[in-house]
């Protein structure tokens, strides 16, 4: 059972928690035409990327299913830094290389880079303490330390504010050991994760890609674009991830959700310091908006809080 203590919740509220995100991989991409190439591959508009602004996006199959989602920021010397789940990173790199004929690109995992997460209202205090660059205050604002391979991104994955740090020098951030608490707080906040809450079997628009600002419907063609656009304009988005509260912890995950028949799944669940069970649930939009009574596998009612979003 995932749970978080009242002490750690308080640290998120008026301090910070920090951890190494070992489940994530860092990929570098470079080449004279890398931006033009990615524009034809990803769901988000690469033109939104700047030295101070990262993007969230996905790479799709021609059938519109996700190969992986990812975060992209600008590195030094026109390089791009890409963050993805480690278990999907090799597949992602292979997919990016697959369609790169005619482009002289370098795309590969960089094992020396590590990703760290600092979550909490005073995360910027941590950056100041360690003399690290502070990005802007908006989601996915990024900043780079001059002369070193260190980058920061505004990423509130588990609290009202948060920072990701990418570096090839782990000593720059010190010892951080709160990964379990951060992962639990991620569930409380309602931050679904590719590889945990959804995978290649789920169309990205049914996994809140719009709500997390990971798709641009005006950017033009990319692999999987036709099906993705058709889902948007023809009412094909049928499901969404929601923050919910449960009466008790599921016996196993994923766990079915029912009305009179099974209609959805609880994909992640965690208990807060006061014993309230929070979860991320994948549900039909129509059932939620109609107010249909929902029950979990324990036969307990489910309370909808809100759709998961940035």
Keywords for this structure?
single chain, 310 residues, 30% strand, 5-stranded antiparallel beta sheet, alpha+beta, Gyrase A, domain 2, Elongation Factor Tu (Ef-tu), domain 3
DSSP strand content:
25-35%
How many domains make up the coordinates? 2
CATH superfamily of the largest domain: Probable tRNA modification gtpase trme, domain 1
Cα gyration radius (Å): 20 Å
Number of strands: 16
> Which ranges are low-confidence, i.e. pLDDT below 50, for 5 or more consecutive residues?
none
Note the gap between the termini.
26 Å
Which structural class do the helices and strands define? alpha+beta
**The CATH class of the largest domain:** Alpha Beta
Record the strand order, biggest sheet: 15-12-13-14-11-16
Polypeptide structure, described:
This protein has 310 residues and is of the alpha+beta class. It folds into two domains: 6-182, Probable tRNA modification gtpase trme, domain 1 (Gyrase A, domain 2, 2-Layer Sandwich); 188-307, Elongation Factor Tu (Ef-tu), domain 3 (Beta Barrel), CATH 2.40.30.160. The chain contains seven helices and 16 strands. It has helices at 6-14, 34-39, 86-98, 123-129, 179-189, 225-233, 285-289; strands at residues 17-20, 24-30, 55-60, 66-74, 80-85, 106-109, 114-119, 142-144, 150-154, 162-167, 239-246, 255-258, 262-271, 277-284, 295-296, 303-307. It has a six-stranded antiparallel sheet. Strands 1-7-10-9-8 form a five-stranded antiparallel sheet, with helices on both faces. Strands 3-4-5-2-6 form a five-stranded antiparallel sheet, covered by helices on one side. The longest helix is centred in the N-terminal third of the chain and has 13 residues, at 86-98. The radius of gyration is 20 Å and the shape is globular. The relative contact order is 0.17.
């Amino acid at each position: 059972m995932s749970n978080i203590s009242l002490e750690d919740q308080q640290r998120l509220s008026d301090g910070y928690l920090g951890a190494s995100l070992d489940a994530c991989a860092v990929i570098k991409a470079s080449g004279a035409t890398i931006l033009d190439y990615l524009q034809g591959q990803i769901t988000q508009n690469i033109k939104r990327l700047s030295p101070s602004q990262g993007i969230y996006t996905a790479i799709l199959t021609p059938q519109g299913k996700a190969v992986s989602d990812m975060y992209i920021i600008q590195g030094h010397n026109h390089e791009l830094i890409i963050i993805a789940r480690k278990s999907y990173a090799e597949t992602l790199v292979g997919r990016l290389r697959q369609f790169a004929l005619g482009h002289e690109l370098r795309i590969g995992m960089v094992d020396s880079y590590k990703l760290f997460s600092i979550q909490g209202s005073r995360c910027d205090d941590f950056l100041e303490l360690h003399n690290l660059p502070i990005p802007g205050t908006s989601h996915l604002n990024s900043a780079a330390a001059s002369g070193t391979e260190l980058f920061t991104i505004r990423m509130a994955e588990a609290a009202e504010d948060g920072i990701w740090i990418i570096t090839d020098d782990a000593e720059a951030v010190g010892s951080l050991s709160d990964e379990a608490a951060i992962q639990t707080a991620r569930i409380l906040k309602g931050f679904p994760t590719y590889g945990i809450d959804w995978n290649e079997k789920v169309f990205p628009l049914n996994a809140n890609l719009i709500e997390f600002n990971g798709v641009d419907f005006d950017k033009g063609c990319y692999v999987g674009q036709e099906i993705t656009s058709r889902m948007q304009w023809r009412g094909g988005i049928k499901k969404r991830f929601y923050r919910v509260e449960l009466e008790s912890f599921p016996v196993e995950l994923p766990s079915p959700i029912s009305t009179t028949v099974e209609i959805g799944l609880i994909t992640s669940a965690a208990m807060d310091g006061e014993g309230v069970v929070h979860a991320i649930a994948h549900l039909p939009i129509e059932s939620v908006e109609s107010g249909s009574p929902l029950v979990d596998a324990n036969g307990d009612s489910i309370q909808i809080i809100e759709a998961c979003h940035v």
